[in-house]
Amino acid sequence: MSTTSAIDWAARAAELxxxxxxxxxxxxxxxxxxxxxxxxxxxxxxxxxxxxRGREADIDAAVKSARAAFDDGRWSAKAPAVxxxxxxxxxxxxxxxxxxxxxxxxxxxxxxxxYSLAVDVPSTARTIAWYAEAVDKIYDEIAPTGPNALALxxxxxxxxVGVIVPWNYPMIMAAWKLGPALxxxxxxxxxxxxxxxxxxxxxxxxxxxxxxxxxxxxVVPGYGQEAGEALALHMDVDALGFxxxxxxxxxxxxxxxxxxxxxxxNELGGKSAFVVFPDFADIERAARTVAGSMFxxxxxxxxxxxRVLVHESVADHFVExxxxxxxxxxxxxxxxxxxxxxxxxxxTQLRTVMGYIEAGRSEGATCVAGGRQARAASGGYYVEPTVxxxxxxxxxxxxxxxxxxxxxxxxxxxxxxxxxxxxNSSFGLQASVWSDNVNRAHRVARALRAGTVHVNQYDEDxxxxxxxxxxxxxxxxxxxxxxxxxxxxxxxxxxRIDAA
Length: 500
Prior knowledge:
Elements: H1 9-15, E1 22-24, E2 27-29, E3 36-40, E4 47-52, H2 56-71, H3 80-96, H4 98-109, H5 113-134, E5 141-143, E6 149-157, E7 160-164, H6 170-183, E8 187-191, H7 198-210, E9 217-219, H8 224-233, E10 239-243, H9 246-258, E11 263-267, E12 273-276, H10 283-295, E13 307-311, H11 315-325, H12 347-362, E14 366-369, E15 373-374, E16 382-383, E17 386-389, H13 396-399, E18 406-412, H14 415-423, E19 427-428, E20 430-434, H15 438-447, E21 452-455, E22 470-471, E23 488-496
Parallel strand pairs: 7-8, 7-10, 8-9, 10-11, 12-13, 12-20, 13-18, 17-18, 20-21
Antiparallel strand pairs: 1-2, 3-4, 5-6, 6-23, 14-17, 15-16, 19-22
Helix pairs in contact: 2-8, 3-5, 3-7, 4-5, 5-6, 10-11
């Protein structure tokens, strides 16, 4: 019997037929202008498909379709239990299309096929199914107003929700927003990144196949300054869920002010601190963990532990282990099931990452592993797993989000210094504390200004816990029941009860 590992993914890719057209009102269509843009694979530069270049007219058509679907109640008026069953069927169909979606994800943004299969597709389906299961178990409230009044507090769908997601986890990031938005009865217009739009388009078709009514989930690919800006400025979009750079997140807030003051929920960048104290006995495990977390997904993760703060007494040993681990993540063909690190998303990102590596060298950091472009002859965009030691927290590689496989090691002397260094960042997405002293672990975890603080591990994850950050890492939370807050309004209905 054929297994996933036995599949010839290169042959499967050669046979794949990709439709890059927009999905509005449940139907594929060309952009209103008829324009397309070329989508090439970062694996080797191969042409994948022409993709519709959505602009303002297409966004407007998608929003009108979503508004009509919301207003006529084809989705919003269904009982939560009915929406639940349809979304559960949507999740099942995502899993049924696992091979196709995984291949699209790998071809589109360069991640290893083994992780598209084992992580991205199952996580997407699990997220949709979890929110489906949760939605008919959330109760409204009655306020304790006294005997002469009845004050009902009810959650209602926002209406039309715009969603803009990045290119690094296209399906997962979309599902984190689609799950709660659709489950609560909203209609959605999704603008995927122009760098990885293909799985989003396919998900919209699968949703309709599962019974999500046409118009409830629309997808318009295009460039950020065209389709993305049009969606954020649209006067009939009630809320916008955005994941991306802090720079673009600022523009989202400006667009809200220039339009209808729509709710903006930004999940932005990170420069997560990974703090290792000398009282943690298993330094080898900490070093292996940071290497695995940093180089996963080619370092293209907002929560990547890219700043490693290590006590000076164990730093030499720690760096030695991490440098020895790095070659195990040398990039290879993403369509090979043994590959653990793939290609960066495009040439622009390749040049960005190599620019940071050069900046690290020029500012005086010591490159102890990697630091070069890899597999240039393939026609794709690959960078060696790179480790810098003797980094100062003021250096560019320690301050800015690189979004590539580049790790910076910063040494510290005291607990107070470690906390100060970790918090001396404009970001606050995640952090990690490594200590066998339970008092220190709690003390430092409380002191760190980050949305998630891991203790003696990193990157463990579950849909039941919220994800988001402090400071310029954004606002609001994806995942968990807290995500429902972003896509619902609270309504108070006050009834006066007259005396008999």
